[in-house]
Design goal:
alpha/beta, Rossmann fold, four-stranded antiparallel β-sheet, 7 helices, about 30% strand, binds adenosine-5'-triphosphate, binds magnesium ion
Length: about 230
């Protein structure tokens, strides 16, 4: 039982995709509380709906049923512009495939999420440099993704996710494509990010990786198996 105030409260969340005549029920009533400052692993086999749920959590997609209370506020009631403002302010994303822009340097990739805000470019650049140093890439600022190793690209993605100083970090299989030594380093970085007071949600299919979190949530058959 977490004594921490829930930042995220999902009540019977459903997500159904319609593909022509096909109805694909991916989430069938997911209920889940996540406290501010928790480090939670969201685990399930491939196709169990982890990324779908992560997109809903991060306000990148809306559920087809149920209620999502974010900091106590029902997000269904919010218009799209409020939703994107909330998304930018609260969430940092590390996507399953890194989603780095191939023709931009590491530094420019990290600065990207800030370009929509009011922060002056010089300040953004300084912060991006700082973040890249924190993830051990001070000597790779001007390398493009194709000139970086997989683990280094994942670090750039982490630095980018932190640019807007998010309260909640959503990491979708951040170690999925990495060797075990590099995975250990990435998990250590996630722990540091958590120790800075952020909520970390780590999506993984791997039981051993899930053990690095404080709590594991198991997704199976469209439902959370343990709460
Ligand atoms: N836009 C979509 N349209 C139709 N079906 C979709 C869509 N997005 C996801 N699905 C289906 O939802 C199911 C869950 O997909 P999801 O990507 O959430 O799984 P996952 O748990 O993240 O899997 P993995 O571990 O392989 O990344 C899959 O069966 C997938 O085909
Ligand atoms: Mg996925």
């Amino acid at each position: 039982m977490s004594a921490k105030q829930p930042i995220i409260c999902l009540q019977d969340i459903e997500k159904t995709f319609l593909l022509g005549d096909l109805t694909i029920e991916v989430l069938k009533g997911v209920s889940l509380d996540i406290g501010a400052g928790e480090f939670v692993a969201l685990r399930g086999v491939s196709g169990s709906g982890k990324s779908t749920l992560m997109h809903i959590l991060g306000l990148l997609d809306r559920p087809t049923g149920g209620r999502y209370l974010l900091q106590g506020e029902d997000v269904a009631a919010l218009p799209d512009d409020r939703l994107s403002a909330l998304r930018n302010r609260l969430f940092g994303f590390i996507f399953q495939t890194f989603h780095l822009i191939p023709y931009l340097s590491a530094l420019d990739n990290v600065m990207l999420p800030g370009l929509y805000g009011a922060t002056p470019a010089r300040q953004l650049r300084r912060r991006a440099q700082e973040l890249l140093s924190q993830v051990g890439l001070a000597d790779r600022l001007h390398f493009r993704p194709g000139q970086l190793s997989g683990g280094q690209q994942q670090r750039v993605a982490m630095a980018r996710a932190l640019l807007n100083d998010p309260q909640v970090l959503l990491a979708d299989e951040p170690t999925g494509q990495l060797d075990s030594a590099t995975s250990t380093e990435i998990i250590a970085l996630l722990k540091t990010i958590h120790s800075q007071g952020r909520t970390v949600i780590l999506v993984t299919h791997d039981a051993a990786t899930a053990e690095s979190a404080e709590r594991e949530v198991l997704l199976h058959d469209g439902l959370v198996q343990n709460r």
